[in-house]
Amino acid sequence: MSAAREHFGSRIGFILAAAGSAVGIGNLVAFPVAATKSGGGAFLLVYALFVFLICLPVMMAELALGRKTEKDPVGAYRQLSGSARLWHIPGWLALITPFMIAVFYMVVTVWVLGYMVEIFKGNLTRLATEAYFGEFINSKAVFIYLIVLMAIINGVLSLGVKDGIERAAKTLMPILFVMLVALVLFVLTQKNAFVGVNYYLIPDFAKINAEVVSKAMAQAFFSLSLGMGIMITYGSYMKKQDSIPGSAKAVALTDTLVAFTAGLLILPSIFHFNPQIDPATLSDSSAGMIFLFLPKIFLSLQSTIGYFGASAVAAAFFFLVFVAALTSLVSIIEVPIATLRDERGMSRKKAITTLAVVQFILAVLCAMSFGMADWLTHFVQIAGSDKSFFDLVEILFYDTILPLNGLLVCIFVIYKWKRANFDQELTVGDSGFAGTLSQKYVNFALGTFIPVILLLIFINTVALKFF
Ligand code: PHE
Prior knowledge:
InterPro entries: Na/ntran_symport, SNS_sf, YocR/YhdH-like. It is found in: Membrane. The protein is mainly α. It has one domain (11-466): Orthogonal Bundle (Hydantoin permease). It is 78% helix and 1% strand. It has 20 helices and 2 strands. A two-stranded antiparallel ribbon has the order 1-2. Strand 1 (380-382) and strand 2 form a beta hairpin. Helix 5 packs across helix 18 (389-427), helix 8 (141-158) packs across helix 15 (302-344) and helix 14 runs antiparallel to helix 15. The longest helix has 43 residues, at 302-344. The radius of gyration is 22 Å and the shape is globular. The relative contact order is 0.18. The site of phenylalanine has 15 residues, from helix 1, helix 2, helix 5, helix 11 and helix 15.
């Protein structure tokens, strides 16, 4: 048997670590882009409704599963499903999903790291040229950065839950908040910034349609790190005296506030760069925004604050994204580590090494899917078009399996583990939650319309991506 379970040292430590997981590239870039293209304030409203009415109860369910069992996702599902072996499947899905998402997220983070270093080296002008991104992602440097990134992440993870994950979050998250606010304040002083703010905040309800609603929901779900076993694993490190509902609310609120604030950074920057811009023409992808568009915007600042100033702002931004991605990666890689330790009795060190080898190989394959290796660049044909290995991982795990995992969590918690047990775990450490309207809502929603909504998103994605 392994030693006593590790725990987060304090409630705030848990909240910062979980918020560190939730706050990622999704918040800093994907959210502002989606909001801009899909109705500004109207999108914000729809998004916030999803976060608090749909995703928050799912987060509570994941945390409760983890804390009750004090196990990784595989162990948690197994322990609470007894002999019903079919219910072991969601546990395995909650293992493989974070594993694969980590691989593709690592590759993007490697690019962020590479850009950050180049800016420090004084190369912002080069970064802002159209061809640079393609050159960079196909250069050997990517593999060096991958090794550096993995060394940092696994270094943090090797120190354990309290001294590694929690300490990193407690140090990095406050830096992230302060830098984000500082950047926003700076950008707001720039010319035409408020054209961007208006565009961001004034609701355009005409833009809201079924597709936008589905996008808002998927974005909210991903942003809160749900469906990836992360909250089950982090829940398993929560102390019994801490409140699950209270902590989950704090995490959801922090995550949403950071996403909202990031909009106040990105939008004014875009409009400062070009006040006539039609945001509908912006690329949908976060990568397009981060690596192709933003460097140009930062460079344009040199007319007001000089090249050094522009580079400093750009470096600050890339550092911000890097920190956000780092704390997310730490959380997602902790999931398979927990599984190898709980299910296979491995030591933390051995689990980390085993995973690092496999993840390195898969990340290299992902990194080579942009032209370095032809067979990876044209890996499969889906819905009549060529997809790379990187695309395949993204479509399969991020787009498709995520909502499915969420759906399975809801059904499992309410109908297999049972409502009464779930309710009881929610009130451990928070006796005041029992009998409140929120408790009744969470209990009802998880057993009824939340799984239906997740199912619809799942079906919609399958139809869109595979046919
Ligand atoms: N919440 C993260 C984001 O918004 C998603 C994520 C979590 C990605 C953990 C990877 C690992 O970017």
